[in-house]
Design goal:
Blueprint lengths: L1 H5 L3 E5 L5 E4 L1 H7 L3 H4 L30 E4 L5 E12 L5 E10 L5 H8 L4 E5 L5 E4 L1 H7 L3 H4 L4 H4 L16 H11 L3 E7 L8 E11 L5 E10 L1 H19 L6 H10 L8 E6 L1 H4 L16 E10 L12 E5 L4 H8 L3 E4 L28 E2 L10 E9 L2 E10 L8 H38 L10 E8 L9 E8 L5 E8 L4 H19 L4 H18 L14 E9 L4 E7 L5 E3 L5 E2 L18 E5 L5 E5 L11 H12 L6 H12 L8 E8 L7 E6 L6 H14 L6 H18 L4 E7 L2 E8 L19 H8 L2 E7 L2 E9 L2
């Protein structure tokens, strides 16, 4: 009934002449006039504005709650009221006048009062200056003030914390600004307000609606709002947002340290203030982590601090080597790793009288905490912490390390839901860390295998000066199958090789090793470039059939490759090239002009049935030969023609050496984030001094053998190699005799003074000699054996018009 007394209803009687004939106590309470002062006076004296024509019949029997009529108060003020008139009849239906009821504008029926008063939502009404006009009981409980305490006071005076934003970094408007804006613009607003009530250690989230209250003319006469506490739902949504961010932000790179740093930065500052990630050294090296059962009781566990991130950035780890961190056996981290269970430490008990009243939702109930959590430990306060969650980092049954989430710059205590979030974040990161560890191990293995299969040191060769570079793909890519090689050939020639195996990983590295070995074997028998690629193509087809599914073995994938094989002869300065699907080399003359290689690359190796074409060109001494793989041209970032043009431009740079030029090319051509291996082989050509080459045509007559011996001995002595005269005489005698006996004219003898003394005898026959064991009474069969014993090496190379038998002697 208090509400009725606070807002009384006036009733009075108006006779047919418009004079007041009766007055109620409600009229005195509402307008201040007594019955003596009003009875007998015209009723129109009570109205500020003239009543409408036909008054009081112009007023309906039911008040219009959307409009108000200004009445005069005894003290001279104006009272906005809702007026209704009902006719009054006497005996025989005689009209006695009207009964008029007056209610203050905004007055509600009692049942409405009680409905709004008992509403579980917080309701409030404020004037345009944000002074309290009315609040319900729920609103009073929220603001910890009664209606009598706040009526007439401004919102900012009662709730000063609403005049600031809890999250200024989000550019949130203070709540009072939102109320003022609705009063000013008349536009309603719906928002979620996050604020920390006075005396509370936890921020509350409220769903709020604000709307203007208008009179009949549409003027904003007040502002109303309602709201309910949705903290549990709000913070649950924030946790989901953090988990969603973690799903896209953790594990983006296959790098252990990088993944640990992603875990450390994701929950800061939305969830916690400081995160540390400690890992076993074995995990950082890509090895299997130690077994938990292998820990000795009482043993201090030494880990490496892989990542650390704070909201202020004052304790972040700088890029570089990790820092060792020791966890004593009685530490929380050691117990968590030993038991596999997480632990929550709170600096103080946030509950009062055994009630956990520090967080929203069911998580604040102790019944929702797992056994043993939380632990009240005042010692962490000495470190400036209000709480800490320690979670073991486990994946696929293996313990990788431990993660701690600490709060130090906020008063909110951790809840059981926070523990679930920390464990979810750690679980996602653990899988990503283990994937990175496994990838690191496989990549290290493949890279080690690949480097062991590549040339460990290039031979010194008089024909060319060489420099090479090989860079595997970035940390986010597997090792590929790029390779290069420099193979010495007979006749002072040299073979330059680059290739690229399809695929990545161990399989590609192993396949690369096979192909490099095959190329060296085929080069050793001096096959021309086009024939060598043909044999290599057949080999890959056979290898591909070996990789098909058979029995218990699964196929290891596609097997294919590209290869470029080139031979340079310093005597003739001829450069012969054949390509199997590989980019052609760049040939830069000493004057900087590019010499085109007039041929088209053949099909990649493994296609089969298609021929390969070799092209030959003469290059000036000092020409630069650039052989490379596709990865050097930039991969997907640019097409092959653009890459070749850029490479040619960089090759024009002056450099003190080929090694320096290699570095310049790699820096200029390769992007920072490369996805493919890159191999580069640079060769600067040299020409053989004509005085170091001597040749002589031999007539197919055994009588010419002594002349050939004399020619050879005279030339060797002219070169100052008298010590090699005896062996040279024997070798020339044997090889020339065999050419006359088994070969076909023309026959030609050539001596080359290189790092070794080379003797070559050519003829037009395709028959190749071979070593054989001579019996005791055989008259022949010992010549080639003698040549093999007396020289450093010997062999046969076939040419387009015959063959050449050669042997080489080591020189002092």
């Amino acid at each position: 009934m208090a509400a009725e007394q606070d807002a009384p209803t006036a009733a009075f009687v108006v006779d047919p002449d418009g004079m007041v004939s009766g007055w109620s106590e409600g009229g005195r309470l509402l307008l201040g006039w007594t019955g003596e002062e009003t009875v007998g006076r015209p009723v129109t004296d009570l109205f500020v504005d003239p009543p409408p024509p036909g008054f009081p019949e112009g007023y309906g029997a039911v008040p219009d709650p959307t409009g108000s009529v200004p009445l005069r108060h005894r003290d001279g003020s104006t009272v906005d009221a809702v007026v209704a008139a009902q006719p009054l009849f006497g005996a025989g239906g005689r009209a006695l006048g009207h009964v008029m009821t007056v209610q203050p504008w905004g007055r509600r029926p009692v049942i409405a009062d009680r409905a709004f008063e008992q509403c579980p939502f917080a309701l409030g009404v404020y004037d345009p200056e944000l002074r309290f006009l009315w609040i319900n009981a729920s609103s009073g409980r929220v603001i910890a003030h009664s209606e009598e305490q706040v009526l007439g006071k401004k919102y900012r005076e009662v709730l000063p914390e609403s005049d600031r934003s809890l999250f200024p970094e989000r550019d949130d408007k203070p709540y009072t600004d939102q109320l003022s804006e609705v009063a000013r613009t008349g536009r309603p607003a719906r928002l979620i307000t996050v604020f920390r009530p006075l005396g509370s250690n936890y921020a509350n989230a409220w769903a709020t609606s604000i709307w203007p209250v208008r009179d009949a003319e549409g003027r904003v006469r007040a502002v109303a709002n309602w709201g309910f506490d949705m903290s549990a739902e709000y913070w649950a949504r924030q946790r989901l947002l953090i988990l969603n961010e973690a799903s896209g932000g953790i594990g983006r790179t296959l790098d252990v340290i990088g993944t640990a740093q992603e875990l450390a930065t994701t929950p800061v500052p939305g969830f916690t203030d400081l995160v540390t990630v400690d890992l076993f050294d074995e995990v950082l090296r890509g090895e299997e982590p130690p077994s938990v059962s292998g820990f000795t009781p009482g043993e201090t566990i030494v880990l490496s601090r892989a990542a650390q991130h704070s909201a202020k950035g004052d304790t972040d780890l700088a890029p570089g080597p990790t820092t060792p961190v020791s966890h004593p056996p009685d530490s929380v981290a050691a117990r968590c790793m030993a038991t596999g269970r997480s632990t929550v430490e709170l600096a103080a008990d946030p509950g009062q009288g055994g009630e956990w009243a520090f967080g929203p939702g069911l998580a604040a109930d102790p019944a929702h905490w797992p056994p043993g959590n939380p632990v009240i430990d005042g010692s962490i306060a000495a470190d400036g912490l209000t709480g800490r969650i320690t979670v073991p980092l486990r994946a696929r049954g293996a313990l990788l390390g431990v993660v701690s989430f600490s709060r130090r710059d906020r008063p909110e205590a951790f809840t059981a839901d926070d523990l679930v979030l920390a464990e979810e974040l750690t679980a996602k990161a653990a899988v990503a860390v283990d994937n990175a560890r496994r990838y690191s191990r496989e990549r290290t293995t493949a890279l080690t295998l690949q480097r062991s299969l590549l040339p460990q040191g290039l031979p010194t060769h008089e024909a060319v000066e060489v420099a090479t570079r090989y860079l595997p793909g970035g940390t986010g890519a597997e090792v590929g199958g790029d390779w290069f090689d420099v193979v010495p050939l007979s006749g002072a020639r040299v073979a330059l090789v680059v290739g690229d195996v399809v695929g990545h990983g161990l399989h590609a590295s192993a396949s690369m090793g096979r192909l490099r070995t095959a190329v060296r074997t085929l080069a050793d028998i001096d096959l021309p470039p086009d024939e060598l690629l043909t044999h290599l193509d057949d080999l890959i087809i056979h290898l591909s059939s070996d990789l098909q599914h058979a029995g218990d073995f699964e196929p290891v994938g596609e097997f294919g490759a590209t290869c470029l094989y080139a031979v340079y002869d310093p005597v003739s300065r001829r450069f012969t090239v054949a390509s199997a699907g590989h980019p052609l080399p760049l040939v830069i003359s000493p004057d900087g002009t590019r010499t085109p290689v007039a041929t088209q690359p053949g099909p990649p190796l493994g296609i089969g049935g298609l021929p390969f074409e070799a092209t030959e060109l003469e290059v000036p001494e000092g020409s630069l030969l650039a052989l490379y793989t596709n990865g050097l041209l930039g991969g997907r970032e640019r097409d092959a023609d653009q890459g070749a043009a850029e490479l040619q431009r960089v090759l024009g740079h002056s450099a003190t050496s080929l090694e320096a030029l290699c570095d310049t090319i790699m820096d200029a051509m390769l992007p920072e984030r490369r996805t493919d291996d890159a191999a580069l082989l640079l060769a600067r050509t040299r020409a053989m001094d004509p005085q170091h080459v001597a040749d002589w045509n031999v007539e197919p007559d055994f009588a010419q053998v002594p002349n050939a011996r004399k020619f050879a001995v005279d030339q060797v002595e002219a070169w100052g190699l008298e010590e090699a005269s005896f062996v040279t005489e024997l070798v020339v005698s044997e090889l020339v005799t065999n050419a006359i006996r088994y070969g076909e004219p023309p026959i030609r003898l050539r001596l080359i003074r290189d790092t070794s003394l080379i003797c070559e005898v050519s003829d037009a026959s395709n028959t190749a000699p071979h070593l054989r064991r001579a019996r005791d009474f055989d008259e022949g069969g010992r010549g080639l054996l003698l040549v093999a014993q007396l020289t450093q090496g010997w062999g046969t190379r076939h040419t387009a018009d015959g063959k050449t038998i050669w042997c080489a002697q080591a020189l002092p």
